[in-house]
Amino acid sequence: MVSHPMDKRALRLPDPTVSPTDRHTAAVMHVSSIFFPIIGPVLGYFVAGAKSPFVKSHSAQALIDLLVFKLIWGIFFIASLVHTIMTAVELYHTGGESFDWRVLVGKILLTLGVVGLLWLINLILSLVQMKNASRGIWPRGRIARKVAERARLKLDSDLPR
Which whole-number Å values give the CA distances from 44 to 24, 38, 40, 60, 152, in the listed order? Predict the structure, then answer.
């Protein structure tokens, strides 16, 4: 019994029906998401994804991952901005007497650490997904599977009968 590529059990195994071109395109798209975080997956989704459900699903997964990282970064940025404003107001009211270099250095180190950690997680995740794409493994995300299923149905309906 051959399982359907969208079957959850089959997602962990390479799909022999995915062409080498689709595998390479999806892998290159994941590498491009490291250097061009939004542009690479968007191009993969709309340009190459129009012909390949495999590339489209990998592009959707990369976009979702990037949006999650941007959301985490945005929350951290807003929290940091609020802390900075509160510190500035406190310094204004105390005439600068409550200024502490340790707090400033700690905030800078924390910011660099969080941004570096998010970059490292994005790098590792993109490289793992690139490896899976080059092996022909479908992404495991629920949304990426739905995107692939819709693209596959659209391609099937566009085929001449």
Answer: 12, 10, 6, 9, 16
Q: Please state the pTM of the whole predicted model.
A: 0.74
Exposed/middle/buried for residue 22 (C-beta within 10 Å: 0-12, 13-18, 19+)? buried
Assigned domain for 7 exists: no
Sign of CA dihedral 60, 65, 36, 5: negative
Question: What total of structural domains would you count in the chain?
Answer: 1
Please name the residue that has the structure tokens 């959707």: 60
Let me know if residue 161 belongs to a domain.
no
Would 58 be classed as within a structural domain? yes
First CA to last CA across the chain, in angstroms? 26
- pLDDT, tens digit, 9 for 90 and up, residues 11-70: 567 888 889 999 999 999 999 888 888 888 888 888 887 788 888 888 888 888 888 888
- The answer to whether residue 11 is domain-embedded is no
The boundaries of the domain holding residue 64 are 16-150
CA 142 to chain centre: 14
